[in-house]
Amino acid sequence: MNQHLGAAEAALKAGRRAEAITHLLAALEEDANRPLGVYRALLLQFYATGRFAEGERWSAKAVERFPRAADFWNLRGVFLRKLERYSEALPPLEKASKLDPKNPAPMVNRGNVLLEAGEFARAEVVFTKLARQEPRNAEHHRQLARALIRQGKRDAAMSRWRQAVALDRSSVDAWLDWAGALDDVNRHQEAAEVLENAVAANPSEPRLLEAKVVVMRRAGQTREAEAFLHDLLQRLGENAWIHFQLGLIFGDADRDRANHHFRRSVELEPGSGHNLVTLAESLNRTRTGDEGANVEEAYQLARRALDGRALTDSNLKVLSEILTRVGAYDELAKLGSMKDLGRVWAGSGRHSAFLSQLSRVRDTEDKLELLEQHRIWGRLVESRVAAAPIQKPPPRPADERIRIGFMSSDLRQHPVAYFALPLFDHIDPRFDVYCYSYFQGVEDPVQAHIRNRVAAFRWWPDISSRNAAQAIANDQLDILFELGGSTHMNKLDVMAYGPAPRQASWLGYPHSAGLAAIDYFVCDPYSAPSRPDLLFETPLLMPHSWLALGRMFSDFHEIEPGLPSDRTGRITFGTANNPHKYNRPMLALWARVLKSVPGSRFVFVRPEGGAASFVAHMRAEFAANGVEPDRVEFRPVRGRHMPYYNELDITLDALPLTGGTTTTEALWMGVPVVSLVGDAFYERLSFSILSNTGVGDLAASDADRFVEIAVGLAGDRQRRLELRTGLREMMKQSPLGRGDLFARDFYEMVAQVLAAPPPSRLSR
After folding, report:
1. Model pTM?
2. What is the pLDDT of residues 680-712, one digit of tens each?
3. Which DSSP string do the residues of 689-735 spell out, in sequence order?
4. Fewer CB near the last or first residue (10 Å), C or N of the chain?
């Protein structure tokens, strides 16, 4: 026997696959005319070790040398499938079937390729044939069900899954597919019953136990799921997946406990990229302790996760958010383009990922692409909702009262509530106001205040989306406003069920949601898109401003006398905007301003300033544009940032997603804001606020004008002094500061809308 072949055989017996591959390759390099068994051994080891690209190259050589070897053609098709070269994978698999028609493996692989390629009708044909040839093969029925469900043939798919588990009660994948399909359309109780039967047949199977917990959580049975998991810890001992699920349950309700369980899941299963990414996400959301340290640890975990691991759509979303937050733009670019990532998230139902997409918009093509991504998501949700609609109650008896609902988990100590409060403090006597929240924390004074002002405050921290929609429908509203979009702890998909006859978006999310069931979008003459095609919904136009300042804006925060530049001898620019709005073109524009004002500095008033990576990345971006790193400073604070406006002479607005809360706060503290105006709603938020305050001239139409305005302000001490002492009073006297007039206009606008015919939803 050849020396290399003997060494390869010994390595295989010892389980040293990589060593075996090395010797097999050496043997073939010595003599390409080795027998069929040598090629087969090499290809099988490539597959076993996940070296698919090498396997594909050598499979091409194998079929050239042994063109009648059906298993080589089959392996070639499998390697191409693993490389996601689906169209190339099909011909070798068809060739394998012709060479060995009695072997079902090539046909099975062909069906799998078609499933993964999204050719579900063709996959149905393949698996139907296989199921007829081998009617007692449970896996054929399972795969046929998968092809059917993706074509919307729900009843037929359910029948095939039922048949699969009847043939093989140990088929865990069939049980999971069946329960998952039910859960996807909010048939939680049926999914739970399927999993009960599955666990009874496979009592120790962790994937089924975990699926049971997931269904319980989605059905709003959080406390029951927690008790079940603690019982499993007692019975099964320490398991990574149990700690992982406990972490998900505690989540925002107790972030420190959640982190403990996520850490334990990583310790127990260090090779799990998903566990690693989830811990990183949880740390990124942790506001207790040292937030900068939490952000830094999240970033370092994200870098570990990026190191050669296969990433799911969900992982990509989390990593994108973390990389954006610390300004790691080189690493962010490696995840994918704005279009590619957006399409992935849209197709997998991850609407919350779109918020960070706004900062990646560069031109009109991107804006239209972002709209389409929202609509792809919307159609996906609508198809799921259509499979399990809610029951619409009969019309309530006619009366003169108007029932208006506001749905948001942010009706508490949160910026959304700051601007929504005027509507609760000045309720029109014609209206009964209903509020809906899914907030998972503890009630604070702001939430208690709102609860005491309205007709009903429904607080459902553990409810499922479908049950929430049904309960809202039972309140028989005339119109429902969602105030949160898909931001954290909100349930945007509730709107897809159409729980109210008319529905609108306002305040919480600066873009069309993507649901045909949302009829209106609240804006004003300044914030309304300059291009109608950049909004799905019918604009509801407030006469002056789309928002007003609530009682949270008070004289409690003092403005220090004089100007910061008088105290420091230099101009200080800065921002308190969230880093999810940052991007390289924006930072380059800010750097242009600093270069044009000698000796000036820039201050980030953000909790991320306590993270070493954020500091390094921001200074590097300014340095790349000619601004010395020591001119960039950081104030790592959260929630106590208002006094720091006394350090800033001028704030530079984010773009294309401009400021909202930060713009109003800066102006309230007497600090002018320079903004850049675009066509879309999210590019015009600050323009509206500045214009309503009376300083619309601070909004620029292009980048050159942005620099010109900022440099002009820096050189105009008298105007900055007038603004420092006068902006707060200007806001108080403007439409922004007249909460009573804002509420009157808002409720009157709603009354007029309800008196008019509803807009058509067919064109969306």
Report:
1. 0.83
2. 999 999 999 999 999 999 999 999 999 999 999
3. HHHHHT-GGGEESSHHHHHHHHHHHHH-HHHHHHHHHHHHHHHHHST
4. N
